[in-house]
Amino acid sequence: MLTIYSLETFVYKSLNWASRLGDLNKVESLGPYAQVMDRIVCNAIRGRRDELDDSKFRNLDLFRGTCLSESQIKEYEDHVVSGKLMSIFGYISCTTSEDKARSFASDDLSDINKPKYATLYHIKWTCGLIRCWYFDDSAFPDEKEVLLTDGSKFKVLSVDKQIKPDKSIVII
Q1: I want to staple 119 with a disulfide (CB 3.0 to 4.6 A). Which of 68, 79, 96, 146 is the partner?
Q2: For residue 45, what is the domain's CATH number?
């Protein structure tokens, strides 16, 4: 089931999109799948605790490449100032490879009125195997994918637009 999810099928896109937008119209159709997905991930984590070294996931640098609008970047900046935890909804596919994450970060200028800018998340994961799944059975093994579960909460440590002129760096 997790390998099928990693193929980025229509279910992957629909489930994450509905979760991120809080689309209650999708609860009836996608709600059962989301519940099953959550249980599968949690059971997979529990089932492999003896096999995976939890300590390797306690100080793990994860990366995610995406694009964000100015208002979304501002929201992260506001969380740096407030110090409040921020939830990111939808399953979050990350990688242990910064280079691989950068390949997913690109500007989206298709809507001139709402441009989105290449953004690299640097996630300092300290929770071990809680709410985290290492995809060694991913459809794309070269991505070194780690899946963070829906609703994971983070403290935003910094937002730096100066590190790389072509990318925003969000450290959480």
Answers
A1: 68
A2: 3.90.176.10
